[in-house]
Amino acid sequence: MGKLMDMDNTYVAHTYGRFPIEIKSGIGSLLTDENGKEYIDMGSGIGVTAFGIGDDKWKDAVIEQLGKVQHTSNLYYTDPCAILAKMLCERTGMKKIFFGNSGAEANECAIKAARKYASMKKGAEYFTIITLKNSFHGRTLTTLAATGQEHYHELYQPLTPGFVHVQPGDIEEFKKTAIESKAAGVLIEVIQGEGGVNVMDRDYVKGIEEFCKKNDIVFMVDEVQTGNGRTGKFYGYMNYDVNPDVVTTAKGIGGGLPIGLCMLGEKVKDVFEPGDHGSTFGGNPVCCAGAISIVERIDDDFLDSVNKKGQYIKDELKKAAGVEDVVGLGLMIGIKTSKPASEVVKKCMENGVLCLTAKDKVRLLPALNIPQELLAKAVEIIKEACAN
Ligand SMILES: *Cc1c(COP(=O)(O)O)cnc(C)c1O
Fold first, then answer.
1. In the chain, N or C: fewer CB atoms in 10 Å?
2. Following CA atoms 70, 73, 74, 78 in sequence, which dihedral angle do they give, to the nearest 10 degrees?
3. C-alpha–C-alpha distance, residues 175 and 179, integer Å
């Protein structure tokens, strides 16, 4: 074992099962390890480096802001946070944005918004948040409670109360549970990422929206993974022709710096007052400056290119040996392989391609601007790994 791996294993908390690779540098969709071996990056740091490693426009924006001021606290006004909020509201129709630093924090804000809205509007007994089985919403005690996977819960009881998980796709169960539990809100991923790249049914998502509108329940979409161009639309919910009351995001919007945010729609835009919620680093000017450089490039032409690349991956892999199914939207793709997903990922790694898994699938979340030649090369290596 190398010195770095030794040191990490000794001093870094053992919360991750790392692969035995030391990444030293990278450029675009290529990463280089300590021996100079290159890998095509089909995971982009779990959907974070949306424009690849060391992207020039993002780097320029970050460095420019670093030269001005790196942090001020939320006691004062700074440009990048307000500009980013305006851009996002204008593109999505959402009304106000709360800034935090991670996906979990973005979801915490959404849950607080729904609870405050419902308790003020309907009464304190309306606190329940409905989420879906197999979902993933974060690692804080509250977002773990929201996460519909028992195995994450076991060691950390008691979790925050007031969460109920329903079976994705079963609209009748959702409606019945929403009424019986006096639901404040519902939080869904339109494509479950960690849960196995499970694409929600159009009718189901529309059904949830409709029921929420009718019953004044806060309809929230967790776009931490699906947001910011990943699914071939600006936000994943836009594939479904719905208008959520709350949208959360993180991961790709920061291009690699920590940022998470919660967008509040018309229904809940004024739910928070000064002192209700906050975050020391939230709206950090450097992170927001980087995020602006990401968001401003996700236009319709760019989204077309994301969809084309996603379709290319699907077309190539669907006919490949050892592939049972290919699912997902845009550049969020799950591959059901005949072999265990972990074996395919290992084989790919040996051959210079880094992939992810999600439950029983191989998951691909490449940088949205991955060059076609690199993508083609990666797909060939993935095919080979699935076949042999
Ligand atoms: C990654 C993820 C989260 C958690 O984000 P963190 O930044 O790790 O807190 C929440 N929801 C979804 C859908 C995710 O993919």
1. N
2. -30
3. 6
Per-residue pLDDT of the chain (388 residues; tens, 9 = 90+): 689 999 999 999 999 999 999 999 999 999 999 999 999 999 999 999 999 999 999 999 999 999 999 999 999 999 999 999 999 999 999 999 999 999 999 999 999 999 999 999 999 999 999 999 999 999 999 999 999 999 999 999 999 999 999 999 999 999 999 999 999 999 999 999 999 999 999 999 999 999 999 999 999 999 999 999 999 999 999 999 999 999 999 999 999 999 999 999 999 999 999 999 999 999 999 999 999 999 999 999 999 999 999 999 999 999 999 999 999 999 999 999 999 999 999 999 999 999 999 999 999 999 999 999 999 999 999 999 999 7
Q: How far is the CA of 249 from the centre of ligand 1 (A)?
A: 8
Separation of 222 CA from ligand 1 center, angstroms?
8
Ligand 1 site, residue 136, Cβ cutoff 6 A: yes
Nearest CA to ligand 1 atom 5: 103
pTM of this structure: 0.98
The alpha carbon of 68 and the centre of ligand 1 are apart by a number of angstroms equal to: 30
Which residue, 127, 195, 193, 137, is CA-closest to 163? 127
- Span from the CA of 138 to the centroid of ligand 1 (angstroms): 5
195 lines ligand 1 (CB under 6 A): no
